[in-house]
Amino acid sequence: MEDKLNIKNSLLERFLKYVKIWSESDSQKADSGIMPSTSGQNEMASVLCAELKSLGLENVQTTEHCYTYGILPANGSAESSICLLAHIDTSEEVSGKNVNPKIHKNYSGGKIILCGAELDPQKDSALSLAAKNVETIITGDGTTLLGADDKAGVAEIVSCLEYLFSHSELKHPAIEVIFSPDEETGHGMDKVPLELLKSKCAYTVDGGHIGELETECFNAFRSDVVFKGNATHTGTARGTMVNAISMASSFVSNLPAGERPETTDGRQGFFAPISIEGSIEESKVSLLLRDFSADGMEKRKSTVELLAKAVSELFGGKAEVLHTQQYLNMKENLDKNPKVAERLISAYKASGIEPVFTPIRGGTDGSRLTEMGIPCPNIFTGGHNFHSRNEWASLDQMIKAVEVLVHLCCGEDFPQIIFCPN
Ligand SMILES: [Zn+2]
């Protein structure tokens, strides 16, 4: 019983400590190669570095680019090591400065009114479910995000390590951890210290609702389409002017209307124009292409090329298309290494959780790492409504995430551990 109480209090305390550290990342700085993009991330890293050392991890260090690494040595298990991963930055979409977390103990329903935000279980099915189970909910005060994305994941990993450290009777292989900066900017794996990493597989703890298990994400490309026109005096333009702005506008309005982010969900891919700029002489449209299948992505790329060509011919100008790969669906590499996901599924089941396989309509550090040859599925954190003032986390679901992690680390001989939330 003592352990059960300890894990709850220490997990909560740890999570509250982390969310109060302002570690929002800055995509402009990250895009220009500055890593970490903000100094708050260094503060998070130094707190974590000290904690990992106190929990018996070895070779603990924060790299020049703010990755915190450590390894908990094996204590009798002959299995090969695994790595756990979470990110220390929060999204810049909503401020993460002066987060003032509110605890709603044994939440049983009703609107949660915050200043500047409102959580309504009638509009939020996950919240309504949490109310039914009388879970303890944590929110911000409505003026900031909460930062459960991904400080819930970080806190859960550290709590798992603490549990293993204080229960040496539980046999586990070596456990490596990496806490990475700048995930939200898309640069989270740019400087990952692969030279330190011994594990052949890893697990990110960066998902949402309890039970979610992610082994699939989008294939992602960015397309930049440049239209070239011909500028003349507007008074004498007839027959000579070719307007690159009109070309760009025609291109965007002819993209399939049913394949936009705002008109798709589930397994559907999309074309998302993200910027349009230019003059009569030259204009540029940038768009994101997303598709779960590799074939589908090839079709999207050729749709962009054909449409750009058709528009340029119609207007009598020119078009150039450049596709840049952003990340790939991790499914293919995970399918080649089925044991990685199987180990995780067994850990969910040992914790009494039926996994729900949700395809990620985006990418994670895990998808980038999978591409680099280290298969890396994603585990739920118990956080919800990420990147918003309505972000909340369930302490009960966070405890279950720790339970999954402990089972995952102990592997084959799953110990019978069930943490009681009460
Ligand atoms: Zn995240």
UniProtKB/TrEMBL annotation:
Domain of life: Bacteria
Example of a GO MF term: tripeptide aminopeptidase activity
Binding sites annotated in the UniProt record for Zn(2+) 1: 87, 149, 206
EC number: 3.4.11.4
Cited PROSITE patterns: ARGE_DAPE_CPG2_2 (PS00759)
Domain Peptidase M20 dimerisation intervals: 221-314
Cofactors that this protein relies on: Zn(2+)
Active-site residue list: 89, 183 (proton acceptor)
Ranges that cross the membrane: none
Alphabetical keyword list: Aminopeptidase, Hydrolase, Metal-binding, Metalloprotease, Protease, Zinc
SUPFAM superfamilies linked: Bacterial exopeptidase dimerisation domain (SSF55031), Zn-dependent exopeptidases (SSF53187)
Pfam short name (any one): Peptidase_M20
Binding site for Zn(2+) 2: 149, 184, 387
Signal peptide start-end: none
Any one Gene Ontology BP term: proteolysis
Cofactor remark: Binds 2 Zn(2+) ions per subunit.
PANTHER family from the UniProt entry: PEPTIDASE T
Family assignment from sequence similarity: Belongs to the peptidase M20B family.
Protein name (record): Peptidase T
Source organism: Treponema succinifaciens (strain ATCC 33096 / DSM 2489 / 6091)
